[in-house]
Amino acid sequence: MNQGFWKDLIKPIIGLAPMDGVTDAACRFIADKYGKPDLLFTEFTSVEGIVHGADKLLDAFIYHKSDTPTVAQIFGADPEAFYKVAFILGEMGFDGIDINMGCPDHNVAKKGGGAGLILTPKLAQEIIKRTQEGTRDWGEGKDIKRLGLPDQITDYVVKYKETRKISDLKNPLPVSVKTRIGFDKIVTEEWIANLLEVEPVNITVHGRTLAQLYSGEANWEEIGKAAELAHKTQTTLLGNGDLKSLEDARERVIKYNTDGALIGRAAWGNPWMFQSIPGLDTTLRLKTALEHCQEFVRLLPRGHFLSIRKHLAWYCKGFDNASDVRAKLTRVSTVEDIRHIVEEYIGSLN
Fold it and tell me: What three-state secondary structure class fits 226?
């Protein structure tokens, strides 16, 4: 098993969970700077879309320089596409690859990807194996230009590598999986045992079935069962679901004997939670919101700026007149709009 950076992580491992539409480059930058989670994940990205030439999808793989391990998350149902994308992620300098086998989106699942793979365990195994083979072949020097990728994809990767001055040193990336406890019913032990047969370096388990989406409570008893199976192997296992704080995450890790946990929604507008910092100063909160937007523009010049509004809303909590500030910030169109609102409110505090 290629453990890569995973073997050096100190347990319990507490990371920022990958979240579609949330954990873009700017979000990860802010979480890393102010929270320092043990690892970061990109938003999940379609391997089929990439190999068919959708170069804009590669913007999801833009990231800042950091000592924090950064893992690219991908999804799909075509093993050969996973093989090819493994080369791309190696060239772009990632520390690891994570395969999404838990997304509950209907359009993803009906095409066989995300949580849909729970219904096709042999295909899931083949996807993991082909991804492992891809990163291994890349590490052994096979040229990405011989894969038959569309020119715009290869050109993007070459330019990205040159611009970022990414090293030519090639070390195969460790391959992990994020999944759920079932599709329309709980099948934790059978499903996790199937994944363990092909030795992913880590499995993260969200404690709900696809049918539950994000309703009800995450079933950490089932996560505990998955951890028990994983502990018989070299694969680490992280839990995910309904974690409200760093302390909550650590308590669940101990209770259910996992190697760590990924925190998602509790980190919205609160990167400091990974340091368990209480009573945040309002000025710091709003200045960080502004910085978040500035980093969005810097890191994602092709990004849809209005998507930043939800992040601004999440920062606006826990202070006087937060609802008024939130209402203003969710109507902004530029960084200057945000700067004006933030400076006006901070000025009113003096």
Answer: helix
Q: Strand, helix or coil at 64?
A: coil
Taking the mean position of all CA atoms in its chain, how far away is CA 173?
Answer: 16
Return the closest-CA partner of residue 40 out of 271, 276, 299. 271
pTM (global) more than 0.85: yes
pLDDT tens, position by position, 186-203: 999 999 999 999 999 999
15 CB contacts (<8 Å, ≥6 apart)?
37, 38, 39, 40, 41, 238, 260, 261, 262, 263
Q: Does 55 have pLDDT greater than 90?
A: yes
Q: Report how far Cα 13 is from the mean position of its chain's Cα atoms.
A: 14
Q: What is the SS3 assignment for 190-215?
A: HHHHHHHCCCCCEEEEEEEECCCCCC
**Cα–Cα dist 84/344, whole Å:** 50
Query: Rounded CA gap, 107 and 40, in Å?
Result: 26
Backbone phi and psi for residue 55, each to the nearest 5 degrees, phi listed first: -65, -25
Over residues 107-146, the pLDDT tens digits come to 898 899 999 999 999 999 999 999 999 999 999 999 999 9
